[in-house]
């Protein structure tokens, strides 16, 4: 059996100018990075202005398990399958972060015969967007410390600097550090720390900005610190936001690549969904809607995280209205939710599947709360039995949704034709009545209560003393009437990763709140979620190699 990278390496890619031409994009409107990837120019946005949008399809999933669900694989395969049934669909995905690539999760370019290529480029440096975001963020941090070193005219309280440096790598040793050591010329000593680039507010800003002017305005609004007398300090007070914009001007342009079957894919931005808002850029999605009759996009992790934030943050800000949700699950993952150990998931267990299907039902119910029709995509494995498939059919019938057994990993677009047709039929027959879950003008506590009760199925929300203090400060700054972005474990509907299925009788504990004033939302931290992940005992990096001819192996 071929590995993902072996499959990707043998792909017959088209030149990126040909992929663009098939979408009606002139060669002058692309900025090639080699032969197989390109930036889409600002002039293209202007040329497509006024063109009618296609239908927006969101791909999400049940809570992830060690068994794997294959959400990105289904997203890519659905785009390939749309082409197989004669539909013009454009894929819009997030860019991978180097942290997971070298850590435990792996890349984010799909798998098997449903991948986005060139896979090695996409999963490594790609077009340099992650590096640009890292540089812009760290420039702002350097400006803060330089201001303090040069006399601290703003009287910044070095104990209350809110922004951290960032790095696109899992490195737990950098979570908490001390900087400025080595004498007066090396800066003022203070406690600092790093977060992973995809958790930075600069990443969120890039993904939510509508254009270059909006990007700069959002950067200027970043709350970076407080003064010694408790007044807020914003990025604009330090200067340098023009320089940050200069670093990000090319990164703001979406990237065009292709699938293994030469269907178009736009990849841009990559915030994590468990510690950020989990969606690709607004600009990429809007561009895909103009270029295709269907835009297939994805939100990170389960629907309780990525999809909720897609609806309540991204759609709210961008005026997007999804026509259909594709909810990805596997029979193996549902059995895991029913209590089956990972080592026994290939063995038929109808009873455990019935028990674990409560997780699938809850995610379907959650998506219906936004008024959007749902199609369930079962990522099929050889170990799935007829008796187990019958349970899925029964569950989906009970919930009033279509389901499809997708064999996309093994067969590419051919294996998802039934799914593609059912998605198109659902869009035609079931009108979307999309609406957000809460009114952003509500107090922060009420918004969190709604998310906790309606989406996580919690009994309520508990606030630590630190969270209560932060809440009072945020409201005092006049930022109470913006959406909430919850940082929570992806493995459970609750804030405890060990509680599978549909947990009951629990409350969500908010341990801290942080204002992302440039992005336009408040981040609520729950559980032990950290914004700088660590590497596992056996990092994926140990399995990756590059021979003397530049051929990469072990990337998957």
Keywords:
556 residues, 12-stranded mixed sheet, 20 helices, 25 strands, 36% helix
Q: Which residues sit in consecutive blocks of at least 5 with pLDDT less than 50?
A: none
| Radius of gyration computed on alpha carbons | 23 Å
Taken as a percent bin, the fraction of beta residues is 15-25%
Could you describe the largest sheet, including whether it forms a barrel?
Answer: 12 strands, mixed
User: Quick one: overall form?
Assistant: globular
Helix-strand category = alpha/beta
Helix content: 25-40%
**Distance between the first and last residues' Cα:** 13 Å
Mean pLDDT: 95
Q: How many β-strand stretches?
A: 25
**What is the count of helical runs?**
20
Write structural notes for this entry.
The chain has 556 residues and is an alpha/beta fold. The chain is 36% helix and 19% strand. Strands 1, 2, 3, 4, 5, 6, 14, 15, 16, 17, 18 and 19 form a 12-stranded mixed β-sheet that branches. Strands 20-22-23-21 form a 4-stranded mixed β-sheet. Strand 14 and strand 15 form a beta hairpin. Helix 9 crosses helix 11. The longest helix has 21 residues, at 129-149. The chain starts with a helix and ends with a strand. The model has no long low-confidence stretch (mean pLDDT 95).
Summarize the entry for a quick read.
By secondary structure, the protein is an alpha/beta fold. The protein is 36% helix and 19% strand.
């Amino acid at each position: 059996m071929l590995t993902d990278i072996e499959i990707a390496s043998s792909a017959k890619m088209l030149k990126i100018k040909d992929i663009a031409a098939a979408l009606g994009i002139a060669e002058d409107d692309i900025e090639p990075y080699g032969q197989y990837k390109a930036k889409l120019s600002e002039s293209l946005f202007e040329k497509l202005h006024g063109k009618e949008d296609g239908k927006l399809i969101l791909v999400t999933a049940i809570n992830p398990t060690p068994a794997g669900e294959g959400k990105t694989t289904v997203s890519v395969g659905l785009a390939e399958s749309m082409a197989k049934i004669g539909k013009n669909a454009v894929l819009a995905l997030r860019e991978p972060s180097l942290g997971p690539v070298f850590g435990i999760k792996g890349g984010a370019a799909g798998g098997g015969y449903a991948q986005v290529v060139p896979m090695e480029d996409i999963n490594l440096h790609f077009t340099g967007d992650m590096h640009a975001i890292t540089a812009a963020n760290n420039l702002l941090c350097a400006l803060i410390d330089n201001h303090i070193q040069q006399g601290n005219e703003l009287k910044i309280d070095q104990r209350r600097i809110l922004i951290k440096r960032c790095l696109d790598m899992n490195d737990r040793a950098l979570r908490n550090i001390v900087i400025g050591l080595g004498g007066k010329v090396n800066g003022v000593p203070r406690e600092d720390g790093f977060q992973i680039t995809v958790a930075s507010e600069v990443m969120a800003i890039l993904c939510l900005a509508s254009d270059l002017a909006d990007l700069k305005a959002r950067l200027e609004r970043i709350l970076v610190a407080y003064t010694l007398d408790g007044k807020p300090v914003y990025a604009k007070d330090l200067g340098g936001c023009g320089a940050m914009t200069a670093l990000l001007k090319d990164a703001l342009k979406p990237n065009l690549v292709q699938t293994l079957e030469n269907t178009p894919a736009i990849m841009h931005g990559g915030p994590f969904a468990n510690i950020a808002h989990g969606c690709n850029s607004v600009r990429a999605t809007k561009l895909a809607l103009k270029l295709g009759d269907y835009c297939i996009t994805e939100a990170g992790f389960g629907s309780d995280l990525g999809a909720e934030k897609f609806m309540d943050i991204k759609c709210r800000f961008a005026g997007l209205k999804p026509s259909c949700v594709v909810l990805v699950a596997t029979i193996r993952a549902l059995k895991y939710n029913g209590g089956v150990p990972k080592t026994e998931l290939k063995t038929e267990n109808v009873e455990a599947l019935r028990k674990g299907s409560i997780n699938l039902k809850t995610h379907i119910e959650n998506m219906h709360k936004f008024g959007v029709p749902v199609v369930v995509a079962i990522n099929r494995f050889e170990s799935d039995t007829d008796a187990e498939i019958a349970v899925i059919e029964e569950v989906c019938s009970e919930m009033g949704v279509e389901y499809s057994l997708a064999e996309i990993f093994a067969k590419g677009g051919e294996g998802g034709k039934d799914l593609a047709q059912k998605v198109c039929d659902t869009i035609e027959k079931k009108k979307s009545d999309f609406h957000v879950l809460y009114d952003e003008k509500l107090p922060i506590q009420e918004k969190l209560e709604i998310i906790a009760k309606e989406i996580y199925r919690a009994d309520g929300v508990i606030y630590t003393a630190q969270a209560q203090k932060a809440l009072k400060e945020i409201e005092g700054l006049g930022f109470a009437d913006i959406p909430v972005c919850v940082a929570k474990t992806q493995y459970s509907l609750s804030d405890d990763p060990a509680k599978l299925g549909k947990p009951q009788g629990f409350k969500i504990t908010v341990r801290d709140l942080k204002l992302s004033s440039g992005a336009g939302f408040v981040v609520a931290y729950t559980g032990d979620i950290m914004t700088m992940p660590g590497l596992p005992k056996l990092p994926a990096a140990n399995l990756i190699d590059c021979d003397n001819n530049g051929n990469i192996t072990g990337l998957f």
